[in-house]
Write a structure and sequence with these properties.
Length: 248
């Protein structure tokens, strides 16, 4: 058996962290940001690599432009302030996350738009047809979800954004797509699979939830034979993705 020792700050790290108005991001040095498609738009390396593979599969970069990726706290503040002045509070609260509560500050989210002479920075055009829809059909295979779908505004706190995509990794993106779940709903659902007693099976992968110990390290014993990927949820614990021999 291996002892898994997780420090309290690990709850706020990983591909599955939930960032919204109720769960602000916890700033940390972003040392692994890379350029997207040779532009000034930045993403975490894993997300950028997955996005490049997806775009290569559909020939996407010829028609799709990266609009906005990682943002600093200062940049998010400036976008919020400028939108309040130009568009008013109702529009801004609908389409712009408050500084500190934006997924863009994690480096795991990107806004995409069709290449054209003018691209709206806040609401780029990304329709439900053509190459944009080709992107949506394939995105779950590469770990991406459309983060703010129509009909889920009361859950996400953000208006419908056809252009905003979030990297969560696999198999999580596929599970969310199959069940029509937002990240908020997915994190809540996985709490019903507590580590050590019940696991969710997805083909040859097993998922479970490990609650964090408040203000202290969280410990768990794991079998040596099983590989594991782990992410904090930025709320109250960790989501474990396991695979290997010996699964039932």
């Amino acid at each position: 058996m291996n002892l898994l020792l997780l420090l309290p700050e690990a709850v706020h790290q990983g591909d599955l962290i939930l960032v919204n108005a109720y769960h602000p991001c916890h700033p940390a040095p972003r040392t692994d940001l890379v350029s997207v498609a040779g532009t000034e738009v930045l993403l975490e390396r894993r997300a950028a690599q997955a996005l490049d593979r997806l775009m290569a599969a559909i020939g996407g970069w010829e028609a799709i432009a990266p609009v906005s990726g990682w943002r600093s706290q200062d940049e998010q503040q400036a976008i919020w302030d400028d939108s309040l002045q130009e568009n008013g509070p109702d529009f801004t609260r609908t389409y712009v996350a408050r500084p500190g509560c934006s997924e863009h500050q994690t480096g795991l989210a990107i806004d995409l738009g069709l290449r054209q002479d003018h691209i709206d920075f806040i609401r780029p055009h990304f329709p439900y047809q053509g190459i944009a829809q080709d992107f949506r059909r394939e995105m779950a295979r590469y770990g991406f979800i459309q983060r703010y779908p129509a009909g889920k505004e009361a859950i996400t706190g953000i208006g419908h954004e056809p252009w905003h995509f979030r990297y969560v990794g696999t198999p999580h993106a596929a599970l969310m797509a199959e069940r029509g779940l937002t990240l908020e709903e997915y994190i809540s659902w996985l709490r019903s699979f507590p580590y050590g007693s019940r696991r969710l099976r997805c083909q040859d992968t097993f998922l479970s939830f490990l609650p964090a110990v408040p203000r202290a390290p969280t410990r768990a014993h794991r079998p040596n034979r099983m590989a594991c990927a782990l992410s904090g949820n930025n709320v109250d614990g960790f989501l474990l993705t396991e695979w290997g021999e010996g699964h039932g």
